[in-house]
Design brief:
The chain is of the alpha/beta class and about 70 residues long. The chain has two helices and three strands. It has helices at about 15-25, 40-50, and strands at about 10-15, 35-40, 60-65. The protein has a three-stranded parallel β-sheet. Strand 1, helix 1 (about 15-25) and strand 2 (about 35-40) form a beta-alpha-beta unit. About 5% of the residues are buried.
């Protein structure tokens, strides 16, 4: 959870334009506790797997796994 009794949502996403836009959108809502963690596409899959198989499995609440590749 977050601070002050609020729940915090942590989103894990590859570093590309939609993730950057989400970060901007979150900034427009100061009452929302949302953090967008990004990593380069080259590391995305391995970083998600590392977290899921580690003691830190609660490092994020949601994974956005969309791709710019058609």
């Amino acid at each position: 959870g977050g601070t002050g009794g609020k729940e915090k949502l942590v989103i894990f996403w590859a570093d590309w334009e939609p993730a950057k836009q989400m970060q901007k959108l979150v900034a427009e809502y100061p009452d929302a506790e949302v953090e967008v963690k990004t990593v380069p596409w080259d590391n995305f899959e391995s970083d998600v797997k590392k977290v899921w198989t580690s003691q830190n499995a609660d490092a994020f609440d949601m994974v956005v796994g969309d791709s710019p590749v058609a």
